[in-house]
Specification:
Elements (H helix, E strand, L loop, with lengths): L3 E3 H5 L7 H10 L4 E6 L9 H13 L3 E7 L12 H21 L3 E4 L17 H22 L2 E5 L9 H11 L4 E6 H4 L5 H8 L3 E5 L8
Parallel strand pairs: 1-2, 2-3, 3-4, 4-5, 5-6, 6-7
Helix pairs in contact: 4-5, 6-8
Length: about 220
């Protein structure tokens, strides 16, 4: 089993800790890898030379860089009905895929869209069908780059009031029809909707990566 830690657990959201410090921490903790976060640990336009340095530093210490994450999509959505916003999200994701390729990462975490961002009243409420249609449109535009870079787009199940069951996830992913797009399965996030084991049984090979965390809630 490959055990890695997300940067936010170590360095928070300020980006004050460097990737090198996080790699050193992971070595001390006996981890297999780390998940760097884009927008705080790393800029999305991190130069290729710096990416190579980070990748080499990690490899020398036996630390993998198999996944990347980002909080970008809560404020700029691939499922937005606003075309200018959708294009900004596409531009970010293209850079994100290239960054992952430079670092040698296999999968990037992406939030496909949200009908509502409950903790941010400045974000609009968007009809469910609109998010479905617009996010799939965006992802289809990204498939060629995902395929050419060899990087998976892992769509995370989050509390975005969108894609609310494993059956729905299967339908959504199969409509896209690309092996490069799957689910970045967050076990804790799934607990509010269904048994996590249901997601594993239904989605199988569509699972590109897994997040584990605590969850406290009623049965």
């Amino acid at each position: 089993m490959y055990k890695a830690l997300n940067y936010w657990v170590f360095g928070g959201f300020s980006g004050a800790a460097t990737p090198y410090q996080f790699i050193d921490f992971a070595v001390k903790q006996g981890l297999d890898g780390i998940e760097l976060t884009v927008g705080d640990a790393l800029p999305v336009d991190c130069p290729e030379s710096e990416c190579r340095k980070i990748a080499a530093y990690a490899a020398e210490r036996g630390i993998g860089l198999r996944t990347l994450a980002s909080g970008f999509y809560w404020g700029c959505s691939l499922g937005s009905p606003d075309e200018a916003e959708r294009q900004r999200a596409l531009a970010f994701t293209r850079d994100y895929l290239v960054l992952a390729k430079r670092l040698g990462a296999e999968t990037i975490l992406v939030v496909p869209g949200a009908t509502r961002v409950a903790w941010d009243p400045s974000r609009p409420v968007v009809p469910y069908q609109t998010v479905w249609t617009q996010s799939q449109k965006s992802l289809r535009e990204l498939i060629p780059l995902a395929e050419s870079t060899g990087v998976n787009i892992g769509l995370e199940n989050v509390w975005n009031r969108f894609l609310l069951s494993p059956i729905e996830w299967r339908c959504y992913l199969d409509e896209l029809g690309s092996e490069r797009i799957g689910i970045y399965f967050d076990v804790g996030n799934a607990c509010i909707y269904a048994q996590p084991t249901d997601y594993v049984e239904v989605l199988g090979r569509r699972i590109k990566a897994v997040h584990l965390k605590n969850f406290v809630g009623s049965d």
